[in-house]
Amino acid sequence: MRPLGECIGTLRSLSRPVRWRIWITVAAGVLRVAASMCFVWASKHLVDIATGVSGDSLWGGIGLFAGILAFQLIIVLFFNWWEGYSAIKAQNRLRQDIFSHVLKSRWDGRERFLSGDTVNRLEEDIRVVSELIIVRYPGVIITVMQLAAASVYLLKLAPNLLWVLLVLMFAAVVGSRLFFRRLRRLMTRIRTRESELQQLMQESLLHRVLMLTIGGVEKVIEKFGWLQKDIEDSTRKRLDYNAMARGFMFFGFQAGHAAAFLWGVFGIIHGTVTYGMMTAFLQLVGQVQRPVAELGRQVPAFINAISSVERLMELQELEKEPETEPVTIDGAPEIVVDSVSYTYPGQSRKVFDNFSCTFPSGSLTIVAGATGVGKSTLIRMILGLLRPDSGSVTIGGHPCGAALRGNFMYIPQGNSLLSGTIRSNLLLADPAASESGLRRVLETAAAGFVFDLPQGLDTPCGEVGSGLSEGQAQRIAIARALLRKGGVMILDEATSALDKDTEERLLENLCRDYHGTKTILLISHRDAASRYADFKITIPD
Predict the structure, then answer these.
(1) Which of 247, 258, 297, 244 is nearest to 132 (CA)?
(2) How far apart are CA 256 and CA 533, in angstroms?
(3) From CA 191, how far away is CA 124, in angstroms rounded?
(4) Fewer CB in a 10 Å sphere around the end CB: N or C, the chain?
(5) SS3 at position 330
(6) Which CATH number fits domain 335-538: 3.90.1150.10, 3.30.110.10, 3.40.50.300, 3.40.250.10?
(7) pLDDT at 39 over 90
(8) pLDDT tens-digit profile of 285-339?
């Protein structure tokens, strides 16, 4: 667990963009507290009029009482609306900021967090933290003010009774919060297991066909049950501690209420308390007890939120790529890999050791080599995703990095379509592409079959292109890349799912339209591209 002060510091920085909303919430809460105190006074005043203690007008008292009720209603309605609206605004702002940070973080060859775990943090942990910032934090301020106002009023009416109530209630709160560290550990464990459960569900549903065909369903269900059981056991322990805490709170409540009631009874007997004062006592007891109890209830919520803050801090600590002005290189630039060495973090084997090669301007070069020798790693260094341990990679004389990404037409290996439609996938590369432009790139990518589909460009794609064959998805991904304006085209095993005739037609189209005007890198184990290539670079084992 991280130091509490560090977590609170992060919480403070997360709240900075919405502090003005917090203070409006507090201001509305102060008005609500003032209205509740006025209601107590109006109730006492009306009872004193009815019992003859006060000679004021009854109808005047009733009018004042009704006016305060109407004011309370307006304040409560506004407060609830504003709190709910501010909560969703803060949640959306925080989620967008952290989601953007994660997407823009530097990639070192592997993701630090599994996607299901990251999604769980972006959903549940952000909800919990947003609620703490917008609802619970101002709620504590308002509660303290309510406690102070009720205490001052009760101090004026019956000072000794106030001290009895405060001692009883604070003793109950302290007794109920002896389990802070245990609750924090349990909440951290529960949140971690929930992330693991979400990851398991997400991956199993995404690869359901694989699970069915390799007989892994029962294994997944077994792990699913184990994770749920662990969450259940940890939750039961948390509920046990909360039950003991509520026992302390219930005792304090009952003792305080009984003390106030008996105080009023004996006061009436001895003539020191009027019926109006008795009415005020009973209302003020609740106004003192409720804030103290509310402060006690905030402790487990705070523990839960601190666990979520820790998990969001881990996302914020992901190293972000430096923000630089995009650099556009005219024409087909030369790519030079000079004396590059690289080892993936946490591994000892060098993928490259003083490796050099050149991709001439406007050439088509095949990158070959055995599986695992580093072909895709080389591409990732050219794309600026990975930084070599030593040596350099330059494009048109510029060092590779995020600033040069706009110069690439990149087709990764595997199915890279997103859920949506064929059109929405294509427009990711160029949102302003025209219908004729979409048709042109689809024809070049040997993906004219799209126009024969019943819904054409608006045909839905499931996750990773489900609903289309692997070959169809690959060709649509190639068409998407062709919408980019860059001078470097990279195809990473982009024809692996195509039959021989389709691959030949695709390569012929690409060479016809781009050979000489783009610097083309083609990673492939197949022979079809050999007769189109100017060069072939084989990466040694």
Answers:
(1) 297
(2) 88
(3) 9
(4) C
(5) coil
(6) 3.40.50.300
(7) no
(8) 666 666 666 666 666 777 778 888 888 898 888 888 777 888 889 899 999 999 9
